[in-house]
Amino acid sequence: MKKVFHTIWFLSIIGLFSLSACKKSAVEQPVNPGEEKPPIEEERRGEAIAWVDARSNVFGTYGRFSDTAMIKTTLDTLKDVGVTGLVIDVKGSSGYTMYPSQFSKQITSQDGKTIPNGVDYVGFIIKEAKKRNFKVYASIVTFVEGDRGKSTGLVFEDPLWKDEYQSITCDVNGNRVPITATGKNGFVNPAIPAVQERALNIVKEIVGKYEVDGMLLDYARYTDVSADFSDYSKNDFIKFLETKYQDTEAKKMNFPADVVTSWKITADQVVPNVTGKYYKRWLIYRATVIHDFFVKARAAVKSVKSNVKFGTYVGAWYTTYYQVGVNWASNEYDPFNDTEVRFDWAYPDYNKTGYGEQLDLLMTGNYFTQLMIKDNPASANLAYHWWSVEGSLKGGKYITRNKMPLYGSIDMGNVDWPNQQAISNTIKYIQANATGGTMLFDVVHIYAPQYNRLKQPLWNAVREGLKK
């Protein structure tokens, strides 16, 4: 399911980093020529947005969204329990789209489930959502172009994408191998212009084709800290060092050893064991790549429809999110010089990679069963604690500097809730403390007890949580 990887990833490192020290391009780029970022809109506060993952809801065994009548019924029930909007997943990990696209194959059937002939799934669900006065946000899996489980997508079907564009990762022995060889989905290298161009074309197509209120990027990142170590990234990094740091010796580097000298496995993740002299500047390089793409993506959305909101989903665990090359903070927040919250991976100018100013909204995955900081004696005396709902929301607002509405998110199906009341309490807390509202992940977890850990329908938990 859609964010199982996010959940598994942070759970696998939570023990390692839960109490660890907490520490854009080289030239600052404007948000958009002549454009002023609006203040946070009061009417956005308290939204309740349900995520609709295509793979689980349309093609999953217990998914309802391959049937138009069931889509209507489910949307009615969502409205009845207090939901005010949807995030509709329109491009998944295969890279295929859920609508007819000029730039991608369309997926209409999988695992025995098929969208009815003649039905534009995306157009239909948007139309029905609008009838119920829902806000509608479209979402794409940005830098993944291959479903490893199905061996489908460009990295499996197109030699150029397979050999040149898919991400290259280091294994525990330091060998550079294609990402799909490790059993993971086909992440592609975000630094490559053709990769960015494809994503931007799809973004513009969606915004132009459908009446959406917002466009969200998901998986707009590197796969993890072990990527991307391709020759392309090596050469691009050298140019970065020469331009930003006037490093005339960069061409002589021993790559990748001068970035990461050796690796180890911790909590089933390949992570640096001994880092090289360029490691922290490598982190800035990767975050710069992502920042600069967000500048382009925002401009792409606004060039088609200036009123469409631009946003993204990220994991709320900022303390380790540098590993995927993402700095979702405001560029006014400087983790290197923060004396209150320390991050030992930060480096001078890391703040310039913060892309918060590019966003009209931000959804963070606050996927924790620990609600309050004080609920765990180990974190009770901390001002910020990135592995609790309270702590991650406080931390998120602290580093984003109130630059955009922040939506806290709850995973109702992939974590071990003790009971439905705990889910309701978490929704209530997020509604009261997030500046934008709540994102509920995922609709399928609510209606299909087979897809949540409690093995119960969760409608009442949502209703109680959203009760005003």
Describe the model:
The chain is 33% helix and 15% strand. The protein is globular. It has an 8-stranded parallel β-barrel, surrounded by 6 helices. Strands 3-4 form a two-stranded antiparallel sheet. It starts with a helix and ends with a helix. The model is unreliable at 4-44 (pLDDT under 50). With 468 residues, it is α/β, with parallel strands linked by helices. It has a single domain, classed as Alpha-Beta Barrel (TIM Barrel).
CATH fold description = TIM Barrel
CATH class: Alpha Beta
**Architecture, according to CATH?**
Alpha-Beta Barrel
Percent range for β-strand residues: 15-25%
Computed CA radius of gyration, to the nearest angstrom: 21 Å
Pick out the low-confidence regions. Answer: 4-44
User: Structural class given helices, strands, pairing?
Assistant: alpha/beta
- The shape is globular
Note the gap between the termini: 30 Å
Q: Brief overview, please?
A:
This protein is of the alpha/beta class and 468 residues long.
Question: What labels describe this entry?
Answer:
single chain; about 475 residues; alpha/beta; TIM Barrel; eight-stranded parallel β-barrel; two-stranded antiparallel sheet; 14 helices; about 15% strand
